[in-house]
Amino acid sequence: AGCFRGIAIVELRQAATVAPRPQYCLIEKMGKQPRWLTWSLPASVAQGKVLLIGIGGAPGSGKRALVKALAGALDVEGFRVATASQDRYTTSAGSYWLPDGGREETYDMPCSISWKDFAAGIGDAATKMAEGEISSEENGRPGVVLVSGSLLYWMAQLNQAMQIRLFLRSSREEVFRQRQNLPESFLEHVLWPCHLEFGQPQAPVQEIVVSDGRSDSWPTLSQVLGIIRAHLRPNGSQP
Question: Is the whole-model pTM more than 0.70?
Answer without folding.
Answer: yes
